[in-house]
Amino acid sequence: MDNYIEQFTYYLKLERGVAENTLVNYLYDLEKLQQFLGSDVDMLHVEESDIRNFIYFVADFLAASTQARILSSLNHFYNFLILQNAIHNNPVTFIELPRQTRKLPVVLSVDEIDLLQSLIDFTKDEGVRNDAIIETMYSCGLRVSEVIGLKLSDLYFDEGFIKVLGKGSKQRFVPIASSAVKKINNYIQQSRSHLKKIQAEDILFLNRRGAQLTRAMIFTILKDLTKIAGLTKNVSPHTLRHSFATHLLENGADLRSIQLMLGHESITTTEVYLHLDKQKLKQEVEKFHPWNNK
Questions:
Q1: What is the largest CA-CA distance in the chain?
Q2: What is the DSSP code (8-state) at residue 98?
Q3: 167, 172, 194, 215: which is the annotated catalytic residue?
Q4: Band of residue 167 on the pLDDT scale cut at 50, 70, 90
Q5: Which helix (H) or strand (E) holds 203?
Q6: Which residue in the list 143, 183, 242, 247 is annotated as catalytic?
Q7: Where are the domains of the chain?
Q8: What is the tens place of the pLDDT at every residue in 206-238?
Q9: Which architecture, in CATH terms, is 110-284?
Q10: Is 215 one of the annotated active-site residues of the chain?
Q11: Which DSSP state fits 95?
Q12: Catalytic residue at 52?
């Protein structure tokens, strides 16, 4: 089985081109299934009932979205084993995904984003950098992994775009606002040279040691500013991405355009923002429609 898992890992990396985080999740899910089955049961001989019992077990402490991810991981693995002629049937095929309740994303208003940026300490090189990071994430709708991976060679300011490396190592070009261009240039000219080290020569946003920023550092930057601002919302880097998409939709952008800029493969992933906008429309009607004032 270890040999099959090793082959599956190469298959995911080389043929499917999955992101590193996705690969880690797939292997973690396989490990948990093996732990549940015990050392006496070979995963090659797993039956549908075994998978159902496993999902029933983890349902007590894992969210529906995580259960769905586990089923997806197992489905990919057993389909791979079929391709390798190791098994003939996929035990996951007829297992339904758990029902998921879609939560509306946390969104900041433009004023709240302005407030966070106004509280940045611009006397420090990190402050100028943080301002540029927030502006870039909000104006381009970037994932945290995408912003920390940005390179100087990804900036096409004359054309008004940046090149982004998204999930599954897929590239896309995203329009960038003039305000973000100005703040990035300001950071490059004023602060980046004080942080620059040769090993991170092309990385745009650097830490104090001149190395690439981590996801955790971006979380910390936003959490600290949120605390100073006194905001009660659960703000994360993804909040800026959600705010970008929601504000675009509220101002008339179509879902297809938002989908392309966010790098979503499926339009259904983007439709959560449509639900958010519908809720806002309902509130507007309830507030302003004359019949509601009778």
A1: 72
A2: P
A3: 167
A4: confident
A5: none
A6: 143
A7: 2-83, 110-284
A8: 988 888 888 899 999 999 999 999 999 989 898
A9: Orthogonal Bundle (1.10)
A10: no
A11: P
A12: no
